[in-house]
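Subgroup meeting minutes
Present: P.N., E.W., G.H.
Scribe: E.W.

1. P.N. recapped why we're keeping a running log of single-chain structure predictions: easier to compare across weeks, and new members can see raw inputs and outputs side by side.
2. G.H. added today's entry (191 aa).
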Amino acid sequence: MRLIEQFERLPQIGHKTAQRLAFYVLGMPDGQAEKFADAIIDARTKIHTCSCCQNLTDEEKCQICSDDGRDKSMVCVVEHPQDVMAFERTREYNGLYHVLHGSISPLDGIGPEQIRIKELMSRLSSAEITEIIMATNPTVEGEATASYISRLLKPMGVKVTRLAYGIPVGGDLEYADEVTLSRALEGRNEI
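Output recorded in log:
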């Protein structure tokens, strides 16, 4: 069935989950199924990237970039739009963002040209940005991306910081790996 095949194309959806989703959609009342299909088509036609931060939006500039109350001197660089949502849930960060839409991964054929680094660099030439917070994932690809971008920014005199790593809240030390423990030690704060 074509519907199952299409659900299987979604990330992290296996055959059985695709079957469950397909049968769920088939069991929807007609009006609900139409609303579901319309929502997908509507999202595909109206959602695009923000002209400033590259986050997803249905406006020219997203709500965050348009907000005059945000600290325009700080930009938090993240890999994906979902990462912006995660930061916004904390209500602790009041700066701007830049979404790369991926990370450098030579094994997957993704170099700096395939992600939104060029757009970040152009933002720096026209704005009052004084700090870039590298918030890429703590993976080999995320580290490579953060390192590459920080090397590009060094000659520009912009302060580049990296998110601290460590033990998650509620985590047990005995289950933490050596890299996590050493990063937790390096990023320790005075209490």
